[in-house]
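Box S1 | Example of a co-folding query
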Amino acid sequence: MPSPTLQNRSQQAAIAELLISEGEKQLQNPPQYLTLTESEPADRYLNDLKNYSHHLLLGCLMTPQINSTRAYGIPWKIGMAIRGQDFTSFLNVSEDEYIRIFQDLSLHRFSKSMGQRTSKAIWQIAEQYEGDASNIWSDTPSSCAVVRRMLEFHGAGIKVATMTANILAREFRVPMSDLICIDVSPDVHVLRVFRRLGLIREDQGGDILIYKARELHPVYPGVFDLSCWDIGRNWCRPNNPKCESCLMKDICPSSVNAHKQASAQGF
Ligand code: SF4
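Box S1 (continued) | Returned holo structure for iron/sulfur cluster
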């Protein structure tokens, strides 16, 4: 396929406008059931934010240094070990016991620190959020407030905090008073589509992508996730992209069509 070329400002604005309008259209659809693990019951608890919001919160806190499928499955495995998935069952477990469960079940590369992280998070939910993690986001907070509240959890860095806010806003459509702090995720699909559309260069990575999305749509940089993910999955595959059917075909600099037209016109 033709090599992507970095587009000028007005071309980038036109491309961004189409991506934003597609992303906004998708936001009107009802949220989908999320498959985050390879275990049906684990996913069921993760999707039940009304009754088991601590599962999603703990799953997000477990993501550093291991793959996300494994991380999100940890709360359910803990629940099986302590014979209860509800918050009270989690509250009745001591820090030492959590560490032992992590070690015995080999739940994470860092058994001790993740056992401590789990225990501290559960206590913080009890003391600060009345035993219900959904109180972190139930008051229609600003996106920055959600990120800041997440950062207050022991061991949560900016990556985990923004990722959690992204999932809540994008996947669960949790109402927030603004979406300024919801960044684009530097996922492989999004990176590939941004590069082929000439919004960033071939050799540029996740950090540039995040700032480019902020520059193009500061009120909701994460809106590009929705459209780019869809384009990447349906048409803009790593090999043999289906430009003919892609919604970006008329303005994409990498589109096979665009290059055929250019050569026909003698460019
Ligand atoms: S037209 Fe679509 S599928 Fe083809 S390169 Fe551009 S974004 Fe990818």
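The chain has 13 helices and no strands. The chain has two domains: 9-29+183-262, 40-171.
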